[in-house]
Amino acid sequence: MNEDLAVRLNKREYTNWLKAGQCLYILKDAILPFIDEQMRAFHGGLLREKPRLREHCQNSCHPRNIELSQACRLCLEWKSEILKHHIQRHSTLYWGNCTPSSWRNDHWEVAKAYMPRGQVHVTAEMCDPSALLNLINYCDWFASVNVKATYVRELIKCRNELMHSGNLGVTDQWMKNFKVAMKRFLQMFSHVPCMTPAEEKINQMLAVDLLIFATGLHAEDSPDMGALVSDSVSKPDISLDLISQWEADLLQERLRELRHTAEEPTMDTEQLKMLDGFLQENKDLSERFCAELQAIGSLAGLQLEELKS
Ligand SMILES: [Zn+2]
User: Fold this and answer.
1) Given pLDDT bands bounded at 50, 70 and 90, which one contains residue 109?
2) 66 alpha carbon to ligand 1 midpoint, in Å?
3) pLDDT, tens digit, for every residue of 10-53?
């Protein structure tokens, strides 16, 4: 039994944080095949409309050339097409996500232009919920398949609040709002085959009491779980090892985001310090993630001493 994990699971706000994070991953996994298919259709449409976009880039144009509009004629044409289908045409896109010479034959390289930074070596299978939600929000293709931008943005807001919460915790009231945002989002995609089982899984996740897995109490002995089991087709298959994996996935996502912002001069180092504080209190997680956090700290110009245990 991991004592540190048991202590964490005793904190309501922390288990809320973990469960909401996990719901976003369930959603991402379920919706990814549909989004991938939609991006393939979007890409195919661009090529049909402008067959010239199929031509090879002869200069191996770098994302930096795209940013400065100093790329080859073909890549600049791709740039203008991508911008044309961005809901805010004058926004700054993270061209560094993309390999421009692959735009002609890889729909996901085009999709990555609509995502937050940090996607350079990320395939569709590897992308996180934030990447996918931002793609759905910013690429105007999704408006044509009846996606309501306000509902997408609501869920993005929840995701950002969750991931930026300094103490890695959210209140029960926050969870209520999250549940509404999630429900609205799911309803927009109710025609997608994988979404019905995903919705069931998400509802189970929101209802489950993770503490019972730490106390060793048998799931059926818990009144909460008993009600859950009778209300749903199957009970969630959860173990402490799995919960531990969820924590690691969410912390990795948080660290990835911090690493990208650490490269900016305007980084708010408070977020780093708060995460460091959390890791100091949780030795099991600290052993796994402290080195990475220290590396990010030095990138951001924070003294390493501040981050040492
Ligand atoms: Zn080029």
Assistant:
1) very high
2) 8
3) 999 999 999 999 999 999 999 999 999 999 999 999 999 999 99
Average pLDDT, the chain: 89
- Is 65 part of any domain? yes
Question: Burial level of 238, CB count in 10 A (0-12/13-18/19+)?
Answer: middle
d(Cα 113, Cα 138) in Å, to the nearest integer? 10
The reply to whether 241 falls in a domain is no
CA of 71 to the centre of ligand 1 (A): 5
Find the domain containing 217 and state its range. Answer: 3-231
Domain for residue 153, yes or no? yes
Q: What interhelical angle do 240-262 and 283-299 show, nearest 10?
A: 10
Ligand 1 centroid – CA 46 distance (Å): 17
How many folded domains does the chain comprise?
A: 1
CA of 244 to the centre of ligand 1 (A): 44
261 domain residue, yes or no: no
Q: What is the pTM of this model?
A: 0.89
d(CA 85, CA 206): 35
CB of 136 within 8 A of CB of 152?
Answer: yes
Residue 87 CB neighbour total at 10 angstroms: 13
